[in-house]
Design goal:
The structure holds 2 protein chains of 2 kinds. By secondary structure, chain A is mainly α. Chain A has 8 helices and 9 strands. In chain A, a hairpin with a 5-residue loop joins β4 and β5. Chain A is rod-shaped. Chain B is an all-alpha fold. Chain B has a single domain, classed as Formate dehydrogenase/DMSO reductase domain (Formate dehydrogenase/DMSO reductase fold). Helix content of chain B is 71%, strand content 0%. The longest helix of chain B has 35 residues. The N terminus of chain B is likely disordered. The chains are: A mainly alpha, B mainly alpha. The interface between A and B is large, with 62 and 58 residues.
């Protein structure tokens, strides 16, 4: 048995497909994504933060954001809770977890640069990218402005330039990706006077956090916020008070955002594959039922016609018989009548004849008499 | 003939004309404001509330209520229920207009509407459920347009093209059902990515199924609801077949809706049970959830069943209206009321009056275009040249 060139190529193609399928299945399978190796991040240590807002000022400067309404050295701003806005990529908020008479704690709100970002998963033009550095970046040249990323983000970070008419953009922290590529520190880290912000490889930051736990027993809640939250983030947080008290949600869970939609997305090709078969099948069944009903109707009609035919034949022959009989009887009757009439006529004739005979006899007698008389 | 007479005797300014006129003028003004002043000038959207009425009502409700097209054509062409044939064209027309208006409304909502084709021509984010919604809506709008064309083609007298399109009916119907299954469910699946923002009673892994099944209910009810209105206002446009089948359609669809509502009720309860969310029922949100579940699902299910049993036409019509309202309530609950429930009330969203104006503006355009088409094209009657053909 020889192998044709065509068949050989077919096998090779199938083998190639198998290889690529195997690969993509590994990448897209239900495995955890450990994050880009060597990716960097920032560790925010709330216990070291003094709420000086220098990080905010630096962020504003390096990102060329518009000047704030109230200057960055105005610390009364901290008394009001704030969130990220189109003109501020990050904010420091002041909390009083132990009452106003005790020292405050500070929390940072800004992009956490998820390992598997919800925004990137949700964007239908792939405007967001998880860079190998660890930064989650945004490409304003393709953004349509649907704001689904803002719906998707569990940390409520992306903001929108609602006031702009022509080209409103999403704005959020870039982890200073342009500076990272130049070998510079993120603006906020560089400006921090207390080392509340530490820049480094994510893995090193986690090690450093554990070291702090060991070195300062009782100082920290022994949890690194962001190590596992929403699948893990490149920004990590340490706190001396429960994280909920410095503005961090503790009910987000550890599943990465894309996992929530994976099932629904996986169902799409199944529907595309199965629905045509199912629907055509239903169509075929309804057609067949219709056809069978039609056939049954035709058969029933034919049957009915045949029956009617037979019945009418019978009726006809009966009628014919009857007609024949009637005819016969009519003939008979007519004959009888004719005979009767003939009889009657004969009788009448005979009677007539008798009548005429009597006078003849008289005449005869008379003639006899006459002849007798003549004799 | 008789319609010309009827319009000739009507006063020029009927209440409908006046209201529609006001809405159109206001809508035009707000449109100008939206595209010269931006979203901030016309909406109450914020960084916490990126989606408002234009998504919650115009997109989610609009698409659900336009489901009559695929439901009716599937019933007639795929399931072979030919006695409902006269309902197909009005349903397809409503579906087509509904989707066209959804796409129109999106131009108001997105920041850079001229980039709406970008996901298909520049780069695609295929991991996004919104991509799937966009792709299916775009394709289905095309399918609905083709399905709708026989009416204008008959009206214009293009016989050959019309006959060609009619030959595609089966293919288009199957395509329509596939695309509808996908995007109706995906609209629900949009919210799967935000379990931390949507109230647990509304958040469920079954969201896509809930949205798809309730879309079928919406489609069935809209056909009845609209049929009732059309019967009142476009009676003279209906031919004998349409008038004769009308009741049959209403009762048949009501019966189907009662069954589907019963199924929907069951899976909603299963949704609560699967995530063990019973305890939330005792809260304020729970009460509102029960209003939706009992008042807008269980009640119409029961009313439809009673109406069909008693052959009560007016109850069928009122129930259809109530069910449609229930769909509106459900979609707004998922997208606005139960969304961001964790935020303090100061950060919650309530639509700006201009957002409401635009939503009304779009609905009004839909009604006017519908009226324009049914008074001219063979929608509720057969074109005499194609009598008894389909």
């Amino acid at each position: 048995m020889s192998i044709s060139r065509r068949r050989f190529l077919g096998w090779m193609g199938a083998a190639g497909m198998g290889v690529t399928l195997g690969r993509s299945a590994r990448a897209a399978g239900p495995k955890t994504f450990p994050g880009y190796p060597e990716s960097v991040g920032v560790l925010f240590d709330s216990t070291l933060c003094i709420g000086c807002r220098r990080c905010e000022a630096a962020c504003n400067k390096v990102n060329h954001l518009p000047p704030p309404e109230r200057p960055f050295d105005d610390l009364t701003v901290l008394e009001e809770p704030r969130r990220t806005r189109w003109d501020s990529y990050m904010v420091i908020n002041k909390y009083y977890p132990n009452g106003r008479e005790n020292p405050p704690a500070y929390g940072r709100m800004g992009c956490n640069h998820c390992k598997e970002p919800a925004c990137a998963s949700a964007c239908f033009v792939r405007a967001f990218a998880k860079e190998p550095t660890g930064a989650v970046t945004y490409d304003e040249t393709v953004c349509v402005g649907c704001r689904y990323c803002m719906i998707a983000c569990p940390f409520e970070i992306p903001t929108y330039e609602y006031h702009k008419v022509l080209a409103p953009r999403i704005s959020k922290c870039t982890l200073c990706q342009p500076r990272l590529l130049k070998g510079l520190l993120p603006g906020c880290v560089e400006a921090c006077p207390t080392e509340a912000l530490t820049f480094g490889k994510r893995e090193d930051l986690i090690r450093s956090a554990h070291q702090r736990f060991r070195m300062h027993p009782g100082r920290y809640m022994e949890h690194i916020y962001g190590e596992h939250e929403m699948g893990g983030t490149n920004w990590l947080y340490l706190s001396g008070v429960p994280f909920a008290e410095i503005g961090k949600r503790e009910d987000l869970g550890t599943r990465a955002a894309p996992e929530f939609t994976a099932g629904a997305l996986a169902a799409v090709p199944l529907v595309v594959g199965l629905w045509p078969v199912l629907l055509t099948g239903i169509y075929a069944i309804s057609r067949r039922k219709e056809k069978m009903a039609d056939e049954e109707r035709t058969a029933a009609v034919a049957d009915a016609v045949a029956k009617t035919q037979a019945a009418s034949d019978e009726k006809l022959s009966a009628a014919m018989e009857k007609a024949k009989k009637e005819k016969e009887s009519a003939v008979e009757g007519a004959v009888k009548k004719a005979l009767e009439e003939a009889e009657k006529a004969r009788k009448a004739e005979m009677a007539e004849a008798e009548k005429t005979e009597t006078p003849e006899a008289g005449a005869g007698e008379k003639a006899g008499k006459d002849s007798e008389e003549g004799a | 003939m008789s319609s010309e007479h009827a319009t000739a005797h009507k006063p020029v300014m009927s209440p409908f004309t006046i209201v529609a006129g006001i809405v159109l003028i206001l809508g035009a003004l707000v449109t100008v404001l939206r595209f010269t002043g931006g979203l901030a000038a016309t909406t109450n959207l914020s960084d916490y509330n990126p989606w408002g009425l234009w998504i919650g009502f115009d997109l989610l409700v609009g698409v659900a209520l336009a489901a009559g097209g695929f439901v009716t054509s599937a019933a007639v062409y795929i399931f072979g229920m030919k006695r409902y044939h006269s309902a197909v064209r009005p349903a397809i027309l409503t579906g087509f207009l509904g989707y066209a208006l959804v796409v129109f409304a999106l131009h108001y909502d997105v920041g850079q509407p001229w980039r709406l084709p970008y996901p298909f021509i520049v780069q695609s984010g295929t991991t996004s459920l919104l991509f799937e919604v966009g792709a299916c809506v775009a394709l289905y709008l095309t399918v609905l347009f083709i399905e709708f064309t026989p009416a204008p083609l008959e009206w214009l007298g293009f016989k050959r093209v019309r006959n060609l399109v009619v030959k595609l009916t089966m293919l288009l119907t199957i395509l329509g059902v596939i695309l509808s299954t996908l995007h109706q469910s995906s609209l629900g699946a949009l919210f799967l990515i935000a379990p931390s923002k949507l109230h647990p009673l509304w958040y469920s892994g079954y969201l896509p199924v809930f949205f798809f099944v309730s879309a079928i209910i919406a489609g069935l009810s809209m056909v009845i609801f609209e049929g009732g209105l059309a019967h009142k206002y476009f009676h003279d446009k209906m031919d004998e077949t349409h008038l004769r089948e009308k009741e049959d359609v209403a009762f048949g669809f009501a019966k189907a809706a009662a069954w589907v509502l019963a199924g929907y009720f069951s899976i909603k309860v299963i949704g609560v049970a699967v995530d063990n969310n019973w305890s939330y029922l005792a809260t304020g949100y729970g009460a509102w959830f029960l209003v939706e579940l009992l008042g807008f699902v269980a009640l119409p299910c029961f009313l439809y069943a009673v109406a069909v049993r008693d052959h009560n036409m007016s109850l069928v019509k009122y129930t259809a209206g109530w069910t449609v309202l229930g769909i509106v309530v459900n979609r707004l609950n998922v997208s606005l009321v139960a969304f961001n429930w964790h935020l303090p009330s100061s950060e919650r969203y309530f639509p700006h009056w201009m957002e409401i104006v635009i939503s009304l503006f779009i609905v009004t355009i839909g009604v006017l275009v519908f009226r324009f088409i049914v008074t001219r094209m063979p929608i509720m009657h057969e074109h005499p040249d194609y009598h008894g053909e389909h």
